[in-house]
Design brief:
The complex is a heterodimer of chains A (238) and B (206). Chain A has 238 residues and is an alpha+beta fold. In chain A, 37% of the residues lie in helices and 23% in strands. Chain A is built from seven helices and eight strands, in the order E-E-E-H-E-E-H-H-H-E-E-E-H-H-H. In chain A, strands 1-2-3-5-4 form a five-stranded mixed β-barrel. Chain A has a three-stranded antiparallel β-sheet with strand order 7-6-8. In chain A, strand 4 and strand 5 (71-78) form a beta hairpin. Chain B is of the alpha/beta class and 206 residues long. Chain B has eight helices and six strands. The radius of gyration of chain B is 22 Å and the shape is globular. Classes of the chains: A alpha+beta (238), B alpha/beta (206). The interface between A and B is medium-sized, with 36 and 28 residues. The complex binds zinc ion.
């Protein structure tokens, strides 16, 4: 058996780029080993078995070996169960992948985040552009990165958030009840409480939580732009 | 070697050549060095030809105004041909894809070569691919139907989806090449993804 051989890893391909004339470096997110780069030897040869299997958004079972920073992919099997993403949902899939590529450090296992990612992809594959699973994925991502979110306590007064009041979100602190006359963008107390209760049945909750998560994620990207987001917006504008 | 002050000393022509070869896809420092020594030591005539050919190509090739493929004139031979069906426009990612289509001898229409595909994670969007140029060509009044022949990868699918929406909105008939098992293909020997997709895209039969 080859050195450092690992088999039977459930994983997704996040991104791939060409390496030498015939190979690929694949950025994968595995359930048990986290995010890591793998060298897929010969994956760009015309009749490579790996070629068709290493597609993003498809659940895969991978095996690899090696002891260096970049391990060598030994096996990639297609598990199925999530049909290929199409249309706008496909673009949202790229958004999820870009968040993982840009925010998730390598070589740390995040099984909960992996499950949230898989759930989000499954929702996207059924055509749900505005699915709660997307917000759950974003929340889990921030939580796993160590940015815990307290949404149901007023960060200034320490009081419980009240559903019919308006709140301004202070980054890295939490929601603060909006002062009279303040016209900063706000979220309703109900949205915050719904997010804690994981209840996305209200259209306003879905809309406001999306905006809030976008704002928080932008903060954690510290100014790095999301290409997938820009491309998405440019396509909508045509 | 880095000179004091942090600036690179002026590179010798040898280093300059090694460095220049690294612009080729998949060529790292080691391959570039090997190529350089090969050209200089073993094949100087080949090196001369390469230099000439590069210079000529750079000076004379441009994008065809109609199909965006490389050509030496304003409009390439294929686009200028009276034997091609002007009402059909097949959109492909790369020039090699147009060659594959031509090899079928089953297509008489014209092409548009995107020179790429949407690749959101790499920042390749509609601006980078000059979608506006394609729209101008597709709506010049000659084209009736657009055939989307981008690859069946995620990127190719994303490209096809958006082009389909945007071209339909501009009044064009849009179709997509079909996918499935290869001719002579047997289920037993096909990969699961292909079989799954063929099942999804099954059609009325008989
Ligand atoms: Zn042409």
């Amino acid at each position: 058996m080859a050195k450092g051989r690992i088999d039977g890893q459930k994983a997704f391909v996040l991104h791939a780029h060409p390496y030498s004339e015939t190979s690929l470096i694949v950025d994968v997110f595995s359930r048990e080993q986290g995010r890591l780069p793998l060298l897929a030897r010969g994956a760009r040869r015309p009749r490579s078995v790996l070629r068709g299997n290493l597609m993003a958004f498809a659940p895969l079972e991978l095996g690899w070996f090696g002891t260096g920073e970049v391990k060598t992919l030994a096996k990639a099997e297609w598990l199925g169960g999530i049909s290929l993403l199409t249309g706008r949902c496909l673009l949202l899939g790229y958004y999820l992948n870009e968040l993982l590529v840009k925010l998730l450090p390598r070589d740390d296992a995040h099984p909960q985040l992996f499950d949230a990612y898989e759930d989000a992809l499954r929702a996207l594959s059924s055509g749900a552009e505005d699915a709660p699973e997307l917000r759950r994925f974003e929340q889990t991502l921030l939580k796993e990165l160590g940015y815990g979110l307290t949404l149901d306590v007023d960060a200034r007064s320490g009081a419980r958030v009240v559903d019919d009041r308006e709140y301004v979100f202070w980054i890295e602190r939490g929601p603060v009840e909006r002062d009279d006359g303040d016209d900063t963008a706000s979220v309703s107390g109900k949205t915050l409480l719904d997010m804690v209760a994981d209840d996305y049945s209200d259209a306003r909750t879905r809309f406001e939580s999306k905006g809030l998560m976008r704002q928080l994620i932008a903060h954690h990207l510290s100014g790095r732009p999301l290409h997938s987001r820009r491309v998405f917006v440019e396509l909508q504008e045509l | 070697m880095i000179a004091p002050g942090g600036k690179f000393p002026s590179t010798s022509s040898l280093e300059a050549l090694i460095d220049a070869l690294r612009c080729l896809p998949g060529v790292g420092p080691k391959s570039a060095q090997r190529m350089t020594y090969h050209l200089l030591q073993r094949d100087r005539a080949g090196a001369e030809r390469l230099a000439q050919a590069l210079q000529t190509a750079l000076a004379s090739l441009r994008h065809c105004l109609r199909c965006n493929n490389f050509t030496e004139s304003e409009i390439c031979q294929r686009c200028a041909s009276s034997r091609r069906d002007q009402s059909l426009l097949c959109i492909v990612e790369m020039p090699v894809d147009a060659i594959s289509m031509e090899e079928t001898h089953a297509y008489q229409g014209l092409y548009y070569v995107l020179m790429g595909r949407l690749s959101p994670l790499d920042g390749i969007g509609p601006k980078e691919l000059a979608f506006e140029r394609l729209f101008a060509r597709a709506t010049d009044g000659l084209v009736n139907e657009v055939i989307l022949a981008t690859n069946f990868t995620n990127e190719g699918e994303a490209t096809a989806h958006y082009l389909s929406e945007l071209l339909r909105a501009r009044g064009l008939k849009v179709s997509r090449i079909a996918r499935g098992l290869p001719v002579g293909g047997e289920l037993e020997f096909s990969d699961a993804a292909t079989v799954a997709q063929a099942l999804m895209e099954r059609r009325d039969y008989g």
